[in-house]
Write a structure and sequence with these properties.
D-Amino Acid Oxidase, Chain A, domain 2
Amino acid sequence: MATRKRVAVVGTGTVGSQAAWRLAARGAEVVAYDRFAPGHDRGAAGGETRVFRSVQTDDSRYVPLVRHADALWQQLQAETGRGLRKLTGCLFMGPADDPDMRTVLDVIAEHGLDHEVIDADAMAKRFPQFRVDDDDLTVLDPRAGFIRPELTVQTAARRAEELGARIRRYTPVREVRPVARGGVEIRTDADTERFDAAVVTPGPWVGDLLPDLPWQVSVHRAISAWFLPDGDHRAGEERPGFLRRGAHHFYGLPSPDGLSVKLGLPQAHHQPVDDPNRLERTVAPEELETFTEIVGRYLPGLNPDPVRLSVFMEGYTGSTRPLVGPLPGCDDIVLLAGFSGQGFKVSPAMGDIAADLALEGRTDQPIDFISTLGRATA
């Protein structure tokens, strides 16, 4: 009879909560640690909604991982009975000659993804809430929508606990160290525990926990802003998410209330964070100028004054590809970090991959292009 593995999960946020669920589902003895508690608003998993999309704008190799995540999103919802994700569709808009828009079409062709190309006349009738330029290409990804991040993190963590995992809330991990004859020790302020393996998903605190990491993860402060429609706002019956590429780069999602719209900006607009324990949550008026310009230019009918603002943190690598795999010289410590704003949609797949690596030392999922193995820098 195989020995039951004892696995620590350090951080129960976007990926850690999913890893705890997948490990517990496979019968591992799981102890998870969090400096706060699952679903908190201090890390990278906030903002009420996060995007899920089948079509990718950067690298077609993510598509199989998204498909695996898609199946696991359905499984987690079925196991818990909670509505974590709503498929509303997602519009990709931008100049037809923009590299990201060309990638959209290439990814669709390579993987045979369901899609719809919408011309300007059809856009005006079907989606009057958006303004498009004459040279724009618009593509609808119907297998897309929004995920509820805080609810998802709490739900995955709760499901892990139902399957036998223990979560040590408000317990910061001070050190993760390999043991000479195999295994890992986890040190907190209260004690030190021994495990067969550890899955380390520290989010913005990766530099604090692993200061000697051979790859750099820079932490940035991201702002989300919510806007309400004006009284004369016209919109079709559909409320898709949307991404725009080109000179103006932004994304947006419908709120679960069906009325407000959330907007977000890319990394170039995110200020660096020197200390993730001292995140500046106050948004200065000048930080809203780009949002105001976007609403006036592309989203007619929305009131340009936001009704809500939220600040959270994201970790970026130089390549924007995440760090996924064992730490150098220690196969028993599996790191998942630096998702560069692209992690939530694939988080169940990443949790499953973390379980593969911690329990089996390998995975059948196609992660060669993001694996830490053989990578000197990122």
